[in-house]
Amino acid sequence: MLSVEGLEVRYAHRDGALRAVDGVDLTVGRGETVGLVGESGCGKSTLGKAILRLVEPIGGRVAIDGVDVAGLKGDRLLAFRRRVQFVFQDPYASLNPRRTIGEILDGALAVHRLGDRPTRRHRVREILDRVGLPADAVDRLPHEFSGGQRQRIGIARALVLSPDLIVLDEPVSALDVSIQAQILNLLVDLKREFGLAYLFVSHDLSVVRYIADRVLVMYLGRIVECADHHVLFGEPRHPYTRALVDAVPLPDPRRPRAAIVAGDIPSAARPPSGCRFHPRCPLAIGRCADEVPSMREIAPGHAVACHLA
Amino acid sequence: MAEHAGRAAAVPRGARLRLSPRLRRTLGRLAVNPTAWLGFAILGTVIGLAAFAPVLFPGDPLDMVAEPFVRPFVALAHPLGTDSLGRDVAAGIVHGARASLLVGFVAALVGTLVGTAIGAVAGYRGGLVDDLLVRLTELFQTIPSFIFLVVLVAIVPPKAVWVALAIGIVSWPTVARLVRAEFRSLRRRDFVLAARSVGHSASHIVLREILPNALPAIIVTGSVMVASAILLESALSFLGMGDPDVVSWGAMIGSGREQLRTAWYLTALPGAAIVVTVLALNLVGDALNDALNPRLEDR
């Protein structure tokens, strides 16, 4: 349903252009949950925002059911916005402090001319109930709610338009662990009930492992590995993925682990030559510094960008 | 059926509740602030005097009603004395409050509206539009505002409303810079991105999402602008460039300055009226700033 090819986003930076997203390909099928993982600053949030044109990409193509999203205007842009929604990481910053929950949700329906006032009011109550918020929330302001409830409001805002795809940008990482589980369960239930597709962006592998059908691993603006979730967690092939998988805390700490990746993620303004991971890679060979590895399919549905895989 | 009735009843309640928690908290914070009380009390008195001027002192305050240079607190009919032409000083001050407040509020309104519109467009659009509007604002700011005002007033008819418009025109750049800065920071916030992702238009985002969040800062600046507009109007009238058909505090000071050594009260009394009014407006501005400051919101 969603296909992204060669997407590029750059930010102006004092050292020149910062390549936040540098040639990313991905697809999300109808009803599929795709996890997108990577360290902070690898460009995964920017990628999510670029798909919705909240950040304008400078290159590549985003298409929904084959229709190119770039250059959409007016009613056609509106139609695209109804189909693809976004849930933000920070439930405190993503709700206007001066609008009531009712205004926020009704406003979304009103722009898309979905029903008259009573119909919309009914729909708002239905959605609030579905995400587990009390009906009197419509008249209240965001600051009257807890973090978890606010994230439910953010989900309600995305859901109220009955989209086909929701891009979730770290939707639980600002929440307490107990609340995280509630929100994740809600997301799983909603997906089943409404046949939603998710692009689930997160730095937390245990969360992605719980929710995603297929996982993409991103490093410094590029996808380095892509596989079904049990394959990726069972037999990761890229050294970076292996390090990430092994860095997840386990119930049994005596289990042997691969070397922990040292150092910080380099600046996207001056990415390393060749394979971008080579300065931190425990297995790097001479070729890694010179030649950019391309994505190769090593098994059906499992692609890796590494010379050694 | 019962559910229907409940839903219908909830609508007006919702409309009231929407404003009240925040407004109630703002008013509550004002109520416990002695500065606010003092400011609003003085301002209320001045507005009251201006409103009831024709009742308190009927007739034209520019009429000669007694012999000149009656000193204050001597004659009961003229409690604050008379000037060199035998005009009643008390009547002049009370009627003068009308001119000062009218010019002050109209000028502040004009300046705030123009400044907000320009600042909002510049801050929200950014890029070339922003560059052009910032240059325009700087152009207005580099001209000394009082000289510019004198030039404007020399061009327009000498009527109080025109003077007010002229003052508004020289004072919008301050508001424009403030509003631009607010919009620049607010437009990057997640809730603005969220409004875009939902499909809201630019005008909805500017007017309904960003502006309400910039409003406290605009209100505070506006209240202080009233005070500075009153000062500008007084300075103009002092120079004899105000509306000659209307008494104003600045004009009273201007006409009394020649008798400064013999009849000091002719300048001191209208001067005190300006000081007290401007002080009251600044106190109100400070109190509003404290009450509307979002950083104090969750205390």
TrEMBL record, chain A:
Main location: membrane
Protein's membrane topology: Peripheral membrane protein
InterPro entries xref list: AAA+_ATPase (IPR003593), ABC_transp_ATP-bind (IPR050319), ABC_transporter-like_ATP-bd (IPR003439), ABC_transporter-like_CS (IPR017871), Oligopep_ABC_C (IPR013563), P-loop_NTPase (IPR027417)
Record keyword ATP-binding present: yes
GO CC annotations, alphabetized: plasma membrane
Swiss-Prot/TrEMBL keywords: ATP-binding, Nucleotide-binding, Transport
CDD domains: ABC_NikE_OppD_transporters (cd03257)
Domain ABC transporter: from-to ranges: 4-245
Tagged with keyword ATP-binding: yes
GO molecular function: ATP binding; ATP hydrolysis activity
Family annotation (PROSITE patterns): ABC_TRANSPORTER_1, ABC_TRANSPORTER_2
Subcellular localization, as worded in the UniProt entry: Cell inner membrane
Transmembrane spans: none
Domain of life of the source: Bacteria
Gene3D superfamilies on file: P-loop containing nucleotide triphosphate hydrolases
Gene Ontology annotations of biological process type: peptide transport; transmembrane transport
Annotated Pfam families: ABC_tran, oligo_HPY
The family this protein is said to belong to: Belongs to the ABC transporter superfamily.
Annotated protein name in UniProt: ATP-binding cassette domain-containing protein
Organism annotation: Siculibacillus lacustris
